[in-house]
Write a structure and sequence with these properties.
The complex is a heterodimer of chains A (335) and B (272). By secondary structure, chain A is mainly alpha-helical. Chain A has helices at 5-26, 34-42, 49-83, 96-110, 116-140, 144-168, 171-180, 193-209, 211-217, 221-226, 231-253, 259-271, 276-297, 309-326. Chain A contains 14 helices and no strands. The longest helix of chain A is centred in the N-terminal third of the chain and has 35 residues, at 49-83. Chain B has 10 helices and 13 strands. Classes of the chains: A mainly alpha (335), B alpha/beta (272). The interface between A and B is medium-sized, with 27 and 34 residues.
Chain lengths: 335, 272
């Protein structure tokens, strides 16, 4: 492998990912010396059992969750942006996250469900229903822009049902729901992690398998069809894969906004390409990095308080979107 | 060999615009499709490309009836170039032309050495050697259309269909593109259909013209498509009848439209 520019562009996010991952294990609300964290990881630590449990039971699964969730959301955003040829598409815009939200709201407020597993199940059902609706409409509505608008409308419908539910609910249930609605990478414990990683991982693998149709779709549907791509099948597979990723992450971590929207842009800006051969791996790595970074920033230095994740992701990601929109004439992937 | 042959084709969306259309396109032939806006040029091209089903009649592509050709196979017979500007600025010229190999490559679209040679040759044919690493977003409109033609060449299909490829080009790029299409027909034996509004370059470069006239649009009246060589259609008065209206006259000897500025004609047409 030659050490050229494009290798460097994949190496940098790899190094950043490793550094951020390590930092997530070392830095936390509880101060644990670096040497002790490393000896805990290598299994040679003989000290406070609480430190051991903080690093292995809390920080490690949280970091892995952030990596998987960030990668999943970012790739689903990338696929939606390519499919709809719209730089502002993302899993939250198509109503998939709202569907998951609605599922959770119904479960928490209306059915008074509080067990973790049933909340996950209801998020799955909600996101799945929206996805089925979108797939059904995608068979009828030819234009991708119109389909995007339908997605936005479905999102609004879901939000308005949530508002009505909130209005009728008691204050503590609303509080519980609002807390879930902030998003959180710490909710996936070690025993739930394999399930989460397996489902999200298969979604990521599927995205890699869709690289060829995604590239063809960059040219628009007519050109893609002329290149022998079965447009209908490609659309359904892409939407399905996006739905799996977005629903899984929302179910396990709550709604995490902006990562799916902003990370594909960061990946395009750093690699300078729209070619999915390079864009998909870089988006996966960058998504994981940004999620870890946001997760680190939730910890207030010098205190043991933790900010909600939903307050941090817009601070990192919204400026990226604004930068991209303001500079779009100078960014060649827009032209 | 006959590349495209239609028999009693009826085309249109809800009701037929044209009925009983019999057209043939030979390999090595450059056809220019002329007609006013709304005459149905895109409808005809979409039907020939297989994107729109004919209402009636049958079609043969490279000697095979279209209903027996799988859509994925059709992409090896026919390459297309469209008017619309594609927002794929982040793709390089080489990446775009390499996508022309998609019908021939496997699941991941990985290129063999042979595929790369074909891509190089396609780039050379359109005069874009040296542009490989440029992004589409950095190209002029003319260079962009050329790279899409190179993509169609890399598809290695005997037929290339272009829907108003020169619409957004300046006059020299237009001429250049038409010359290039003529060369592709002559040298590489491609069968090419190109729809255009540019009468001047069409008359000079095409082997054959297809003139589409949708008629007066009455409920049972279908349009007509007249075919012939530029010289033939100019000599027998077809061009004159087709293009002359108001102060515009088709001049068969010059082979172009002229504006009759005599006071009678101008005031006459203004009064109408």
């Amino acid at each position: 492998m030659r050490f050229n520019k494009s290798n460097l562009r994949i190496l940098i996010p790899c190094v950043a990912l490793a550094a951020l991952f390590l930092a997530s294990l070392i830095y936390g609300a509880v101060r644990i010396p670096v040497g002790d964290v490393l000896s805990i990881l290598t299994g040679t630590f003989e000290g406070k059992a609480t430190w051991q449990s903080i690093v292995l039971q809390s920080r490690l699964p949280q970091a892995i969750t952030a990596v998987v969730a960030g990668a999943g959301l970012a790739v689903s955003g990338l696929m939606l942006q390519t499919l709809f040829r719209n730089p502002l598409a993302g899993p939250s815009i198509l109503g998939i996250s709202d569907g998951a939200n609605l599922g959770v709201a119904i479960a928490m407020i209306y059915l008074s469900v509080s067990s973790y597993l049933s909340i996950i199940a209801s998020a799955f059902i909600g996101a799945g229903c929206v996805l089925l609706l979108i797939i059904r409409f995608s068979a009828k509505v030819k234009s991708n822009v119109m389909l995007l608008i339908i997605g936005i409308m479905i999102g609004y419908l879901a939000s308005s049902v949530i508002s009505i539910l909130n209005y009728r609910a008691s204050a503590d249930k609303v509080h519980q729901y609002v807390m879930w609605g902030m998003g959180d990478f710490s909710g996936v414990s070690l025993d739930k992690l394999p399930c989460f990683a397996a489902v999200a991982g298969s979604g990521l693998l599927m995205a890699v398998l869709l690289i060829k149709p995604l590239n063809a779709l960059l040219l628009g549907e007519t050109y893609a069809a002329n290149l022998g791509i079965n447009i209908r099948r490609a659309r359904i597979l892409i939407l399905f894969c996006t739905g799996i990723l977005a629903a899984t992450v929302t179910a396990f971590c709550g709604p995490v906004s902006f990562i799916g929207l902003a990370v594909p842009h960061i990946a395009r800006l750093t690699t300078g390409t729209s070619n999915h051969n390079r864009l998909v791996p870089v988006t996966i790595l960058t998504g994981a990095c940004i999620a870890l970074l946001c997760n680190l920033l939730t910890i207030l230095p010098g205190s043991n308080q933790v900010l909600p994740l939903g307050a941090i992701t817009p601070i990192i990601c919204a400026p990226v979107i604004i930068y991209v929109i303001v500079n779009r004439r100078n960014i060649h992937y827009f032209n | 060999m006959t590349a495209i042959e239609t028999r009693n084709l009826a085309i249109g969306y809800d009701r037929p615009l044209y009925s009983g259309v019999n057209l043939t396109l030979q390999q090595g032939e450059l056809v220019c499709l002329l007609g006013l806006n709304g005459a149905g040029k895109s409808t005809l091209l979409s039907t020939l490309c297989g994107f729109l089903h004919p209402i009636d009649g049958s079609m043969k592509i490279m000697g095979r009836p279209t209903e027996k050709i799988h859509p994925e196979e059709l992409s090896k017979e026919m390459g297309i170039v469209l008017t619309e500007k594609v927002n794929a600025g982040g793709v390089t010229v080489r990446e775009l032309v390499s996508m022309g190999r998609y019908p021939h490559t496997g699941f991941f679209g990985r290129l063999t050495d042979r595929d790369r040679e074909i891509v190089d040759r396609a780039l050379e044919s359109v005069g874009l050697s040296g542009f490989e690493a440029r992004h589409l977003g950095e190209l002029s409109d003319g260079e962009r259309q050329k790279s899409f033609i190179a993509k169609a060449l890399a598809q290695e299909c005997p037929i290339i269909i272009l829907d108003e490829p020169t619409a957004f080009l300046d006059i020299t790029s237009r001429m250049e593109l038409m010359v290039m299409l003529r060369q592709l027909a002559d040298r590489e034996n491609k069968a090419i259909i190109v729809s255009t509004h540019d009468l001047d370059s069409a008359l000079q470069s095409a082997h054959t013209l297809w003139l589409m006239d949708k008629g007066d649009g009455g409920p049972e009246r279908y349009g007509t498509i007249k075919c012939g060589t530029p010289a033939g259609l100019a000599d027998d008065g077809t061009m004159e009848a087709f293009f002359s209206r108001g102060p515009l006259r088709f001049d068969p000897s010059a082979g172009r439209l002229i504006i009759d500025t005599s006071p009678d004609n101008i005031s006459d047409s203004l009064r109408r």
